[in-house]
Write a structure and sequence with these properties.
245 residues; alpha/beta; seven-stranded parallel sheet; 7 strands; globular
């Protein structure tokens, strides 16, 4: 991680769970971290969980990644404040309790796709434009899911599964585009199994199901970032011991 010390990382969905863990770990590793979140006050509160020497490296920006205007405004702020983006961590993701064929669920379906797919693509686009403008060999990381590789027969999360399959395809597409553009920018998909976060239904968070912790995913992010410039981790799948999904 030494080569990233002092560099700028933008992390989405930092108000809780995986995003909060990543933001804290990157700040502790010496990076300047810009946490984008709707509940910006919760990202601000993360500073209290950091060593005093790292607190001034974490910055909270209010942003709903399902809204392009919020994304553009946030990346403009990063450029004006810090010069640009070196690392992009697309973590923001939501699930809505609806089946594809339920009546009257259009808004819920759109919310998931706008956040999990369009938000990820637009943030990646703005980060890439910043990296290209400054000739930075940066890194884009998508927090995906095992649901992006296998259709799970879980009621009420089916559009979530489709959105994560899109992330898998988008990752490989971005790799092709970055290679065709002659850049050395990396792109990585990290696909966890069940993680003890708010996105998991409360009925499953009862100790009976094997679960990962948010910190396990953050460690994977640090690993991917810490690889040699010649190494690209395209896909990293992480499951809790004993998981049967």
């Amino acid at each position: 991680m030494d080569r990233w010390v002092g560099k700028v990382a933008v992390v989405t969905g930092t108000s809780s769970g995986i995003g909060a863990a990543i933001a804290k770990d990157l700040a502790k590793a010496g990076m300047v971290v810009v946490g984008l979140a709707r509940r910006v006050e919760r990202t601000e509160a993360l500073k209290e969980e950091l060593p005093e020497s790292a607190r001034n490296r974490l910055h909270a920006v209010k942003c709903d990644v399902s809204k392009e205007e919020d994304i553009l405004k946030s990346f403009k702020w990063v450029e004006e404040k810090f010069g640009g983006v070196d690392v992009m961590i697309n973590n923001a993701g939501i699930s809505r309790q609806t089946d594809l064929l339920d009546a009257g669920n259009t808004e819920m379906l759109r919310e998931v796709l706008d956040t999990n797919v369009m938000g990820l693509v637009l943030c990646s686009r703005e980060a890439y434009q910043s990296m290209k403008k400054r000739s930075v060999d940066g890194h884009i990381i998508h927090i995906n899911s095992i649901a992006g590789h296998k259709v799970l027969n879980f009621p009420k999360i089916n559009i979530y599964t489709g959105s994560k399959h899109a992330v898998t395809a988008i990752t490989e597409t971005m790799m092709n585009e970055l290679r065709n553009a002659g850049t050395k920018i990396k792109v990585t998909s990290i696909s966890p199994g069940a993680v003890e976060t708010e996105i998991i239904p409360e009925a499953m968070r009862n100790g009976k199901f094997p679960m990962l912790e948010a910190e396990d995913i953050s460690e994977a992010v640090l690993y991917a970032l810490g690889t040699h410039p010649r190494v690209q981790i395209q896909e990293l799948t992480i499951r809790p011991v004993g998981e049967t999904l």
